[in-house]
What we know:
Elements: E1 6-15, E2 18-28, E3 33-37, H1 44-51, E4 59-64, E5 67-68, H2 73-77, E6 80-83, H3 95-105, H4 110-123, H5 139-151, E7 157-161, H6 169-186, E8 189-194, H7 197-201, E9 205-210, E10 213-218, H8 220-225, E11 230-236, H9 239-250, E12 254-257, E13 260-265, H10 268-278, E14 283-289, H11 293-301
Amino acid sequence: MNEPLLDVEAVTHRYGTRTALNSVSFQVARGEIFALLGPNGGGKTTLFRILSTLVAPSEGRVHMFGYDVVLQQGEIRRRIGVVFQAPSLDRKLTVSENLRHQGHLYNLHGHDLQKRMDELLERFGMADRRNDLVETLSGGQRRRVELAKGLLHKPQVLLLDEPSTGLDPRVRRELSDYLERLRDEDGMTILLTTHLMEEADRCGRLAILDRGKLVALSTPQELKDQIGGDVISVDAKQPQVLAEQISKRFGMEARVLDGNVRIERNNGHKFITELVEAFPGQIEAISIHKPTLEDVFIRMTGHRFDGEET
Protein backbone atom coordinates (compact mmCIF):
# COMPACT_ATOMS: atom_id res chain seq x y z
CA MET A 1 0.00 0.00 0.00
CA ASN A 2 1.25 3.52 -0.80
CA GLU A 3 1.28 6.17 1.92
CA PRO A 4 -2.15 5.72 3.58
CA LEU A 5 -4.79 8.42 3.46
CA LEU A 6 -6.14 7.16 6.80
CA ASP A 7 -3.97 5.67 9.53
CA VAL A 8 -5.66 4.25 12.65
CA GLU A 9 -3.08 3.25 15.25
CA ALA A 10 -3.92 1.28 18.42
CA VAL A 11 -7.20 3.12 19.03
CA THR A 12 -9.00 2.31 22.25
CA HIS A 13 -12.16 4.01 23.48
CA ARG A 14 -14.06 3.60 26.73
CA TYR A 15 -17.44 4.70 27.98
CA GLY A 16 -16.80 4.71 31.72
CA THR A 17 -15.68 1.18 32.56
CA ARG A 18 -16.95 -0.31 29.29
CA THR A 19 -14.44 -0.72 26.45
CA ALA A 20 -16.05 -0.04 23.06
CA LEU A 21 -12.80 -0.26 21.05
CA ASN A 22 -9.75 -2.24 22.04
CA SER A 23 -6.43 -1.34 20.35
CA VAL A 24 -7.76 -1.20 16.77
CA SER A 25 -5.25 -0.53 13.98
CA PHE A 26 -5.63 -0.40 10.18
CA GLN A 27 -4.89 1.81 7.19
CA VAL A 28 -6.94 2.95 4.18
CA ALA A 29 -5.38 3.94 0.86
CA ARG A 30 -6.58 6.66 -1.50
CA GLY A 31 -9.32 5.55 -3.86
CA GLU A 32 -10.46 2.59 -1.75
CA ILE A 33 -13.99 1.58 -0.82
CA PHE A 34 -13.38 0.30 2.69
CA ALA A 35 -15.95 -1.23 5.04
CA LEU A 36 -16.10 -1.54 8.80
CA LEU A 37 -18.17 -4.71 9.18
CA GLY A 38 -19.51 -5.94 12.48
CA PRO A 39 -22.61 -6.84 14.48
CA ASN A 40 -24.37 -4.43 16.75
CA GLY A 41 -21.99 -3.92 19.64
CA GLY A 42 -18.90 -4.47 17.50
CA GLY A 43 -17.65 -0.92 17.98
CA LYS A 44 -17.97 0.31 14.41
CA THR A 45 -20.24 3.25 15.24
CA THR A 46 -17.85 4.44 17.95
CA LEU A 47 -14.99 4.22 15.46
CA PHE A 48 -17.05 6.11 12.88
CA ARG A 49 -17.59 8.93 15.37
CA ILE A 50 -13.86 9.12 15.99
CA LEU A 51 -13.07 9.21 12.25
CA SER A 52 -15.64 11.94 11.66
CA THR A 53 -13.97 14.03 14.45
CA LEU A 54 -17.00 13.91 16.77
CA VAL A 55 -15.28 11.87 19.51
CA ALA A 56 -11.67 11.80 20.67
CA PRO A 57 -10.29 8.31 21.32
CA SER A 58 -9.36 7.39 24.87
CA GLU A 59 -6.03 6.04 23.62
CA GLY A 60 -4.20 5.70 20.32
CA ARG A 61 -3.87 8.01 17.31
CA VAL A 62 -5.74 8.62 14.07
CA HIS A 63 -4.32 10.59 11.14
CA MET A 64 -6.25 11.51 8.01
CA PHE A 65 -4.46 13.34 5.16
CA GLY A 66 -1.56 13.47 7.63
CA TYR A 67 -3.61 15.50 10.13
CA ASP A 68 -4.43 14.42 13.68
CA VAL A 69 -8.19 13.93 14.17
CA VAL A 70 -8.02 15.39 17.67
CA LEU A 71 -5.59 18.26 17.25
CA GLN A 72 -6.39 19.33 13.67
CA GLN A 73 -10.12 18.78 13.30
CA GLY A 74 -10.68 21.84 11.11
CA GLU A 75 -8.26 20.63 8.44
CA ILE A 76 -9.97 17.25 8.33
CA ARG A 77 -13.56 18.52 8.36
CA ARG A 78 -12.92 20.63 5.28
CA ARG A 79 -11.82 17.51 3.41
CA ILE A 80 -14.46 14.96 4.42
CA GLY A 81 -18.11 14.43 3.65
CA VAL A 82 -20.20 12.64 6.27
CA VAL A 83 -23.53 10.85 5.84
CA PHE A 84 -24.87 9.68 9.17
CA GLN A 85 -27.25 6.79 9.73
CA ALA A 86 -29.88 9.12 11.19
CA PRO A 87 -31.54 11.27 8.49
CA SER A 88 -30.23 14.84 8.41
CA LEU A 89 -32.59 16.29 5.79
CA ASP A 90 -35.27 18.82 6.71
CA ARG A 91 -38.47 17.07 5.62
CA LYS A 92 -40.37 20.36 5.30
CA LEU A 93 -37.89 21.84 2.83
CA THR A 94 -37.44 20.96 -0.83
CA VAL A 95 -34.50 18.97 -2.14
CA SER A 96 -32.90 22.16 -3.50
CA GLU A 97 -33.43 24.07 -0.28
CA ASN A 98 -31.72 21.32 1.72
CA LEU A 99 -28.72 21.34 -0.59
CA ARG A 100 -28.51 25.14 -0.75
CA HIS A 101 -28.41 25.47 3.05
CA GLN A 102 -25.71 22.80 3.22
CA GLY A 103 -23.67 24.65 0.62
CA HIS A 104 -23.82 27.86 2.63
CA LEU A 105 -22.17 26.04 5.56
CA TYR A 106 -19.14 25.51 3.30
CA ASN A 107 -19.19 29.08 1.99
CA LEU A 108 -20.64 28.05 -1.40
CA HIS A 109 -22.95 30.62 -3.01
CA GLY A 110 -24.43 31.82 -6.26
CA HIS A 111 -23.51 30.29 -9.60
CA ASP A 112 -20.86 27.92 -8.19
CA LEU A 113 -23.28 26.44 -5.70
CA GLN A 114 -26.08 26.11 -8.24
CA LYS A 115 -23.76 24.42 -10.73
CA ARG A 116 -22.62 21.92 -8.12
CA MET A 117 -26.21 21.22 -7.07
CA ASP A 118 -27.22 20.63 -10.69
CA GLU A 119 -24.30 18.24 -11.22
CA LEU A 120 -25.14 16.14 -8.18
CA LEU A 121 -28.90 16.06 -8.72
CA GLU A 122 -28.30 14.90 -12.28
CA ARG A 123 -25.79 12.27 -11.18
CA PHE A 124 -28.13 10.80 -8.60
CA GLY A 125 -31.20 10.93 -10.82
CA MET A 126 -32.99 13.54 -8.71
CA ALA A 127 -33.00 16.53 -11.07
CA ASP A 128 -36.74 16.22 -11.69
CA ARG A 129 -37.45 16.18 -7.93
CA ARG A 130 -35.41 19.26 -7.00
CA ASN A 131 -38.49 21.30 -6.09
CA ASP A 132 -40.29 18.51 -4.23
CA LEU A 133 -40.52 18.44 -0.45
CA VAL A 134 -38.26 15.83 1.12
CA GLU A 135 -41.22 14.31 2.96
CA THR A 136 -42.69 13.24 -0.40
CA LEU A 137 -39.61 11.21 -1.37
CA SER A 138 -39.07 7.48 -0.94
CA GLY A 139 -36.38 6.14 1.39
CA GLY A 140 -34.05 5.46 -1.51
CA GLN A 141 -34.54 8.94 -2.95
CA ARG A 142 -33.82 10.54 0.41
CA ARG A 143 -30.62 8.53 0.66
CA ARG A 144 -29.55 9.91 -2.73
CA VAL A 145 -30.14 13.45 -1.51
CA GLU A 146 -28.17 12.69 1.67
CA LEU A 147 -25.28 11.58 -0.54
CA ALA A 148 -25.53 14.70 -2.69
CA LYS A 149 -25.52 16.80 0.46
CA GLY A 150 -22.37 15.08 1.72
CA LEU A 151 -20.61 15.63 -1.63
CA LEU A 152 -21.48 19.28 -2.25
CA HIS A 153 -18.12 20.65 -1.15
CA LYS A 154 -16.15 18.06 -3.18
CA PRO A 155 -14.65 16.16 -0.24
CA GLN A 156 -11.69 13.84 -0.68
CA VAL A 157 -13.17 11.23 1.67
CA LEU A 158 -16.80 10.19 2.09
CA LEU A 159 -17.76 8.62 5.44
CA LEU A 160 -21.05 6.68 5.49
CA ASP A 161 -22.63 5.23 8.63
CA GLU A 162 -24.86 2.23 7.81
CA PRO A 163 -25.83 3.73 4.42
CA SER A 164 -28.23 0.90 3.48
CA THR A 165 -30.34 1.06 6.63
CA GLY A 166 -34.03 0.93 5.72
CA LEU A 167 -33.42 0.38 2.01
CA ASP A 168 -34.74 -2.57 0.02
CA PRO A 169 -32.27 -4.87 -1.81
CA ARG A 170 -32.70 -3.14 -5.19
CA VAL A 171 -31.95 0.30 -3.75
CA ARG A 172 -28.98 -1.14 -1.85
CA ARG A 173 -27.50 -2.35 -5.12
CA GLU A 174 -28.10 1.06 -6.68
CA LEU A 175 -26.31 2.70 -3.77
CA SER A 176 -23.31 0.40 -4.22
CA ASP A 177 -23.25 1.33 -7.90
CA TYR A 178 -23.23 5.05 -6.99
CA LEU A 179 -20.30 4.53 -4.61
CA GLU A 180 -18.32 2.66 -7.25
CA ARG A 181 -18.90 5.52 -9.69
CA LEU A 182 -17.66 8.03 -7.13
CA ARG A 183 -14.49 6.00 -6.71
CA ASP A 184 -13.94 5.39 -10.44
CA GLU A 185 -14.94 8.81 -11.81
CA ASP A 186 -13.93 11.14 -8.98
CA GLY A 187 -11.16 9.18 -7.28
CA MET A 188 -13.18 9.33 -4.07
CA THR A 189 -12.05 7.40 -1.00
CA ILE A 190 -15.07 5.89 0.73
CA LEU A 191 -15.31 4.38 4.20
CA LEU A 192 -18.60 2.93 5.41
CA THR A 193 -19.90 1.01 8.38
CA THR A 194 -22.29 -1.88 7.86
CA HIS A 195 -23.73 -4.99 9.46
CA LEU A 196 -24.85 -6.31 6.05
CA MET A 197 -22.69 -9.04 4.51
CA GLU A 198 -23.84 -8.25 0.97
CA GLU A 199 -22.83 -4.61 1.32
CA ALA A 200 -19.41 -5.47 2.74
CA ASP A 201 -18.86 -8.06 0.01
CA ARG A 202 -18.93 -5.32 -2.63
CA CYS A 203 -16.21 -3.26 -0.95
CA GLY A 204 -12.55 -3.41 -1.91
CA ARG A 205 -11.33 -4.21 1.60
CA LEU A 206 -12.90 -4.54 5.00
CA ALA A 207 -12.10 -4.65 8.68
CA ILE A 208 -14.25 -6.99 10.74
CA LEU A 209 -14.93 -5.80 14.28
CA ASP A 210 -16.36 -7.83 17.15
CA ARG A 211 -16.85 -6.58 20.70
CA GLY A 212 -14.41 -3.77 20.15
CA LYS A 213 -11.62 -5.83 18.63
CA LEU A 214 -10.37 -6.07 15.05
CA VAL A 215 -10.67 -9.77 14.19
CA ALA A 216 -9.95 -9.73 10.42
CA LEU A 217 -8.63 -7.33 7.78
CA SER A 218 -8.36 -8.03 4.04
CA THR A 219 -10.38 -8.19 0.82
CA PRO A 220 -13.68 -10.09 0.96
CA GLN A 221 -12.39 -12.84 -1.32
CA GLU A 222 -9.12 -13.30 0.56
CA LEU A 223 -11.04 -13.63 3.82
CA LYS A 224 -13.41 -16.22 2.36
CA ASP A 225 -10.48 -18.12 0.86
CA GLN A 226 -9.12 -18.59 4.39
CA ILE A 227 -11.99 -20.99 5.08
CA GLY A 228 -10.30 -23.39 2.66
CA GLY A 229 -13.29 -25.34 1.41
CA ASP A 230 -17.02 -25.81 1.78
CA VAL A 231 -19.08 -25.25 4.92
CA ILE A 232 -21.20 -28.20 6.01
CA SER A 233 -24.02 -27.91 8.56
CA VAL A 234 -25.38 -31.10 10.12
CA ASP A 235 -28.66 -31.36 12.04
CA ALA A 236 -28.35 -34.21 14.54
CA LYS A 237 -30.24 -35.56 17.55
CA GLN A 238 -27.14 -35.23 19.72
CA PRO A 239 -24.99 -32.57 18.03
CA GLN A 240 -22.25 -32.41 20.67
CA VAL A 241 -21.81 -36.19 20.67
CA LEU A 242 -21.72 -36.26 16.88
CA ALA A 243 -19.19 -33.39 16.72
CA GLU A 244 -16.83 -35.28 19.02
CA GLN A 245 -17.25 -38.48 16.98
CA ILE A 246 -16.53 -36.64 13.70
CA SER A 247 -13.41 -35.00 15.14
CA LYS A 248 -12.12 -38.35 16.42
CA ARG A 249 -12.86 -40.36 13.28
CA PHE A 250 -11.77 -37.88 10.62
CA GLY A 251 -9.14 -35.90 12.56
CA MET A 252 -10.80 -32.56 11.84
CA GLU A 253 -12.50 -29.76 13.76
CA ALA A 254 -16.24 -30.04 14.17
CA ARG A 255 -17.98 -27.51 16.37
CA VAL A 256 -21.57 -27.07 17.53
CA LEU A 257 -23.14 -23.75 16.57
CA ASP A 258 -26.82 -22.93 17.16
CA GLY A 259 -27.58 -26.59 17.73
CA ASN A 260 -25.98 -27.85 14.51
CA VAL A 261 -22.60 -29.41 13.83
CA ARG A 262 -20.47 -27.12 11.64
CA ILE A 263 -17.59 -28.44 9.52
CA GLU A 264 -15.23 -26.81 7.03
CA ARG A 265 -14.02 -29.25 4.38
CA ASN A 266 -12.57 -29.30 0.88
CA ASN A 267 -14.75 -31.14 -1.66
CA GLY A 268 -17.59 -31.04 0.82
CA HIS A 269 -20.06 -32.66 -1.58
CA LYS A 270 -17.93 -35.83 -1.56
CA PHE A 271 -17.39 -35.78 2.19
CA ILE A 272 -21.13 -35.67 2.85
CA THR A 273 -21.48 -39.24 1.56
CA GLU A 274 -18.70 -40.44 3.88
CA LEU A 275 -20.31 -38.63 6.78
CA VAL A 276 -23.76 -40.14 6.32
CA GLU A 277 -22.33 -43.64 5.88
CA ALA A 278 -20.11 -43.29 8.96
CA PHE A 279 -22.95 -42.29 11.30
CA PRO A 280 -26.15 -44.02 10.12
CA GLY A 281 -29.27 -42.90 11.94
CA GLN A 282 -27.57 -40.00 13.76
CA ILE A 283 -27.95 -37.35 11.05
CA GLU A 284 -31.37 -35.72 10.59
CA ALA A 285 -30.45 -33.31 7.78
CA ILE A 286 -27.35 -31.91 6.12
CA SER A 287 -26.57 -28.83 4.01
CA ILE A 288 -23.52 -27.41 2.25
CA HIS A 289 -22.54 -23.96 0.96
CA LYS A 290 -19.55 -21.98 -0.24
CA PRO A 291 -17.89 -19.77 2.40
CA THR A 292 -19.45 -16.39 3.11
CA LEU A 293 -18.29 -13.43 5.19
CA GLU A 294 -20.46 -14.70 8.02
CA ASP A 295 -18.49 -17.95 7.93
CA VAL A 296 -15.33 -15.86 8.22
CA PHE A 297 -16.83 -14.08 11.23
CA ILE A 298 -17.83 -17.39 12.84
CA ARG A 299 -14.35 -18.83 12.36
CA MET A 300 -12.71 -15.74 13.89
CA THR A 301 -15.11 -15.32 16.83
CA GLY A 302 -16.89 -18.63 17.42
CA HIS A 303 -20.33 -17.03 17.22
CA ARG A 304 -22.76 -15.38 14.83
CA PHE A 305 -23.61 -11.68 14.64
CA ASP A 306 -25.36 -10.51 17.81
CA GLY A 307 -25.25 -7.90 20.55
CA GLU A 308 -26.15 -4.28 21.12
CA GLU A 309 -24.72 -1.27 19.27
CA THR A 310 -21.92 0.73 20.86
